[in-house]
């Protein structure tokens, strides 16, 4: 089922459901090569979500700021390659939402446990806001908070469940968003956790 949340924002309910186990299997070697870690915000606070990346570019934050890098600062190695299954899922999702030819070169992997949350933010480090972002939710459900173009706009809660895919482009690309703290639970495939994958196209001039 396809739901338009606002111009540019499409929820593809259950789009990744039949591939969920294969996706999680493809993530295992990635998480081995680039372990999940809780990074520091530029303000020096530890993020509550554990993150890592695969693809040409990975997103990091530390006391110097937010940015995309070609190497993982914890291993000094290039980020692990994006598994083709993930690339294809992201590209097919974008096309299903009207964004043909999406070729993500970064996949951010977020792992949530009970109490993990993400405060309202914009995703604007990619250098090309004409490209959409595709998000895939796996495991425990969470309340996603979808705001407006200003931080103060009241956010709408949307329940994101296992297998749901969201595509954000066009006018929705710079909307503020976050998630409520994850509730405790146990999922047959992910145990006490929720994984969120976000696929991006990073355009770097340097
Ligand atoms: C709306 N992740 O990784 S996914 C993030 O559930 C992030 O882990 C959340 O926000 C999560 O940056 C939300 C849905 C999402 C992702 C990117 C967006 C919504 C978006 C970019 C622009 C607008
Ligand atoms: Fe985000």
UniProtKB/TrEMBL annotation:
GO terms for biological process: oxidative RNA demethylation. 2-oxoglutarate binds at residues 110-112, 194-200. Its cofactor is Fe(2+). Its EC number is 1.14.11.33. GO terms for cellular component: cytoplasm. Binds 1 Fe(2+) ion per subunit. The keyword NAD does not apply. GO terms for molecular function: broad specificity oxidative DNA demethylase activity; ferrous iron binding; oxidative RNA demethylase activity. InterPro entries: Alkb, AlkB-like, AlkB-like_sf, Oxoglu/Fe-dep_dioxygenase_dom. Substrate binds at residues 59, 66-68, 125, 151. The keyword Metal-binding applies. Fe cation binds at residues 121, 123, 177. Keywords: Dioxygenase, Iron, Metal-binding, Oxidoreductase. It comes from the Bacteria. Residues 103-203 form the Fe2OG dioxygenase domain. This is Alpha-ketoglutarate-dependent dioxygenase. It comes from Acetobacter cerevisiae.
């Amino acid at each position: 089922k396809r739901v338009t949340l606002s111009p540019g924002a499409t929820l593809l309910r259950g789009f990744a459901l039949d591939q969920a186990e294969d996706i999680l299997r493809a993530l295992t070697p990635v998480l081995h090569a680039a372990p999940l870690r809780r990074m520091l915000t530029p303000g020096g606070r530890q993020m509550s979500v554990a993150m890592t990346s695969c693809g040409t570019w990975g997103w990091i934050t530390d006391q110097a700021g937010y940015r995309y890098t070609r190497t993982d600062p914890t291993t000094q190695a290039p980020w692990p390659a994006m598994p083709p299954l993930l690339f294809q899922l992201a590209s097919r999702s974008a096309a299903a939402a009207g964004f043909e030819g999406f070729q993500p070169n970064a996949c951010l992997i977020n792992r949530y446990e009970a109490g993990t949350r993400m405060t309202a933010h914009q995703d604007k480090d990619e250098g090309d806001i004409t490209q959409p972002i595709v998000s895939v939710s796996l495991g425990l459900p969470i309340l996603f908070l979808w705001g407006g173009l200003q931080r103060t706009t009241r956010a709408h809660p949307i329940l994101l469940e296992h297998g749901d895919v969201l595509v954000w482009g066009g006018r929705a690309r710079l909307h503020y968003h976050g998630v409520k703290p994850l509730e405790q639970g146990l999922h047959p495939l992910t145990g006490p956790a929720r994984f969120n994958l976000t696929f991006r196209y990073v355009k770097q001039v340097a």
